């Protein structure tokens, strides 16, 4: 409890004036240290984060950034920030801490647990996901990420008919991207594992039992024609491995409410393709409804998925519709709220530290109050407000 | 000395030249107007110039004028020293005699007043009631007027340090018990504060209501283009803002949000006041302007008189009367013309 009291006392007068004499005259060294770095922690291992560290920034070490996040997960906006601030630091917030708390205490013998992150646009769902992904990577979990599920709906790359089922459509290029991403992220973890059954992709081509998983994946990458089938095979393999207690699996899907929308993909003579007619979607839905142990699924509903005119709602029932909610139940809903007052202050401290806010009037209490007002407690809006400062 | 003589001679020749030109021009003007040159007065000249060279400039000093050089330039080039070279002003060798004259006069007066107070205190009389200090009612000359005062009257170039010292000394002097002559002396260098000039001082402005929980509030309507906003301001609040049930995300653009922010920042009541608003009509910018109008009108009773004056002078309390201009016949839109054809 004592540390909490120190935190409250230190934040008010001194969070901004770092070297004031008030601080030096305070009794305990811990209080002074906390005052100086009130918005940062040195602990970069997410498994050690607890509710004490709420509202503070921690930096992700560079090699992790390169390996896990740089390629497919980070948006150009975040890559820019990484370049500017010379580091990738995340604010530790309550939803991420709650999820990590649950993950630590979870009984993994039960089937797949599903988390659903929801919140207003630009409230920070993606950053909570990055935090949790970093935690899982530090615990050596296998990460299967779908950085933006609506890509399958919107980005017009090849569409082909599925060999096995006539009503479904393949997306070879998208599945290739998925496989490449998976391989890069989890290379070191899947080296030893081998396939358990044969998979027949067509009459002539099949993969045998017992070949290493990496070979299967690279087969899918080189032969794009069968990439989608390889994805299905991979998902089944991961399920089997997880059930045998060999790996722990984290599935992250951003924008799961795109599974129940119409796509913009086109194929000759076919008029409209619904997302339920894509094999990728069906494969992931199977995975989410399966009974695998040692697996956790983290999904988020994003209002970005909808058209520009339709982005006012952010509650999952409105975004996913009845179908989606019925499909995903039971799930653990986690709300990602907008910034609270303390978080706002620490974010502004961080920006000042990184020289993102440079105008001297903006660093005063009045200036901060104005920035707080203008941003409306929204993380992205706060960033945009500070752009001209 | 020699330089002074030279300058005096140049000045004289200049004046003679200008007077000749003036006389010539006067005669021509008289001829044009049909009046005898001897009977022509300055008013006739002014009228003529206004007719011949009309100008729409706001600054009347920069409009064309036709005056005798004696009204514009000083006639006699005044030597600040006599024939022997001894300067008239006793502070001539400080390079700013007039400034130092004023400062030393003020200091001298302060000494006199101090002696008086000591005298009064020694007689054992009880101290008088607290008077209203002059510094509360008057604002001393700010930097620009100060520099201008010295430049135009005495052609002296004064620095910022000197202005600071001036302000400090005058405030010190004004806080003592002043005599009439001292008050007259000080009033030269100050202008009454805006609080004396009460721009809006009616009772209507200070009206507010008290709701059931005992909180003071005031509702006012704000208008802009075709948007109508009903704004209620609750005093003793935390900084809660509500527009049509949403927070400030109701407005998406930064400009609109800043419009709502502006009156709160001016009156420095960002976190002291709750605002609830209901807006209808217009577009985003119109609605934000309407809220601004309503907000600033609703804040008046909770704010000092000086701030009320500031608000009214800044134009926040007036309805912005700009409306979309009507389309005209023979043109495409209000100003846009049809395409010009040669034939």
TrEMBL record, chain A:
Entry keyword Transit peptide: yes
Assigned keywords, A-Z: Mitochondrion, Ribonucleoprotein, Ribosomal protein, Transit peptide
An example Gene Ontology CC term for this record: mitochondrial small ribosomal subunit
A GO molecular-function annotation: structural constituent of ribosome
Protein origin, superkingdom: Eukaryota
UniProt key word Mitochondrion: yes
This protein's name: Small ribosomal subunit protein mS29
From TrEMBL, chain B:
The keyword Ribonucleoprotein is annotated on this UniProt entry: yes
Any one GO molecular-function label of the UniProt entry: RNA binding
Signal sequence interval, chain numbering: none
GO CC annotation: mitochondrial small ribosomal subunit
Cited SUPFAM superfamilies: Ribosomal protein S5 domain 2-like (SSF54211)
Family note: Belongs to the universal ribosomal protein uS9 family.
Protein name: 28S ribosomal protein S9, mitochondrial
Family matches, as PANTHER family: RIBOSOMAL PROTEIN S9 (PTHR21569), SMALL RIBOSOMAL SUBUNIT PROTEIN US9M (PTHR21569:SF1)
Domain of life: Eukaryota
The species this protein was found in: Magallana gigas (Pacific oyster)
């Amino acid at each position: 409890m004592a540390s909490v009291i120190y935190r409250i006392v230190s934040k008010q007068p001194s969070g901004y004036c770092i070297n004031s004499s008030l601080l030096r005259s305070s009794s305990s060294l811990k209080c002074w240290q906390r005052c100086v770095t009130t918005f940062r922690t040195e602990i970069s291992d997410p498994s050690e984060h607890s509710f004490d560290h709420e509202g503070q920034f921690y930096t992700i070490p560079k090699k992790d950034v390169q390996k896990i996040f740089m390629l497919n997960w980070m948006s150009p906006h975040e890559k820019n920030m990484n370049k500017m601030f010379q580091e990738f630091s995340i604010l530790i917030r309550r939803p991420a801490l709650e999820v990590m708390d649950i993950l630590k205490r979870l009984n993994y013998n039960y089937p797949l647990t599903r988390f659903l992150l929801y919140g207003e646009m630009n409230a920070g769902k993606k950053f909570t996901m990055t935090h949790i992904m970093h935690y899982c990577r530090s615990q050596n979990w296998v990460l299967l990420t779908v950085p933006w599920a609506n890509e399958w709906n919107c980005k017009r790359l090849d569409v082909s008919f599925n060999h096995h089922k006539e009503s479904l459509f393949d997306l070879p290029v998208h599945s290739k991207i998925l496989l490449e991403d998976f391989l890069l992220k989890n290379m070191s973890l899947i080296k030893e594992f081998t396939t358990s059954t044969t998979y027949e992709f067509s009459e002539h081509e099949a993969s045998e039992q017992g070949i290493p998983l990496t070979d299967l994946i690279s087969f899918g990458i080189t032969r794009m024609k069968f990439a989608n089938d390889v994805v299905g095979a991979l998902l089944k393999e991961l399920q089997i491995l997880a059930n045998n207690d060999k790996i722990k699996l984290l599935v992250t899907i951003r924008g799961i409410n795109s599974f129940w929308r119409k796509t913009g993909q086109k194929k000759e003579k076919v008029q409209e393709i619904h997302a339920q007619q894509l094999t990728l979607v069906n494969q992931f839905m199977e995975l989410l409804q399966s009974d695998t142990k040692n697996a956790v699924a983290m999904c988020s509903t994003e209002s970005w998925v909808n058209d520009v005119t339709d982005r006012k709602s952010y509650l999952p029932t409105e975004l996913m519709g009845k179908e989606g909610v019925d499909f995903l139940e039971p799930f653990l809903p986690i709300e990602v709220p907008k910034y609270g007052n303390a978080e706002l202050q620490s974010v502004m401290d961080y920006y000042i530290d990184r020289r993102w806010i440079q105008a001297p009037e903006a660093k005063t209490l009045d200036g901060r109050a104005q920035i707080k007002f203008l941003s409306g407690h929204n993380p992205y809006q706060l960033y945009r407000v500070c752009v001209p400062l | 000395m020699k330089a002074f003589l030279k300058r005096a001679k140049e000045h004289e020749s200049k004046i003679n030249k200008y007077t000749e030109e003036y006389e010539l021009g006067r005669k021509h003007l008289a001829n044009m107007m049909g009046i005898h040159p001897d009977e022509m007065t300055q008013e006739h000249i002014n009228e003529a110039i206004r007719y011949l060279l009309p100008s729409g400039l706001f600054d009347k000093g920069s409009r064309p004028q036709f005056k005798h050089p004696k009204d514009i330039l000083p006639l006699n080039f005044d030597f600040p020293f006599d024939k022997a070279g001894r300067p008239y002003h006793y502070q001539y060798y400080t390079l700013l005699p007039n400034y130092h004259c004023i400062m030393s006069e003020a200091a001298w007066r302060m000494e006199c007043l101090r002696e008086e107070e000591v005298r009064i205190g020694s007689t054992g009389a009880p101290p008088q009631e607290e008077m209203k200090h002059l510094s509360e009612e008057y604002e001393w000359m700010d930097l620009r007027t100060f520099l201008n005062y010295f430049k135009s009257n005495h052609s002296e170039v004064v620095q910022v340090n000197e202005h600071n010292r001036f302000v400090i000394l005058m405030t010190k002097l004004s806080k003592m018990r002043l005599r009439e002559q001292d008050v007259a002396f000080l009033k030269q260098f100050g202008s009454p504060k805006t609080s004396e000039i009460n721009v809006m001082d009616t009772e209507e402005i200070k009206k507010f209501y008290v709701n059931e929980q005992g909180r003071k509030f005031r509702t006012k309507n704000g208008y802009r283009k075709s948007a109508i906003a009903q704004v209620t301001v609750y005093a003793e609040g935390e900084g809660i803002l509500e527009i049509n049930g949403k927070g400030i995300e109701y407005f998406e653009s930064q400009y609109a949000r800043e419009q709502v922010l502006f009156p709160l920042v001016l009156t420095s009541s960002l976190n002291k006041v709750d605002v609830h608003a209901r807006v209808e009509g217009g577009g985003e910018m119109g609605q934000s302007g309407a809220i601004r109008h309503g907000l600033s009108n609703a804040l008046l009773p909770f704010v000092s008189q000086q701030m009320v004056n500031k608000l009214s002078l800044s134009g926040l309390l007036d309805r912005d009367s700009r409306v979309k201009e009507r389309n005209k016949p023979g043109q495409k839109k209000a100003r846009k013309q049809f395409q010009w054809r040669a034939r």
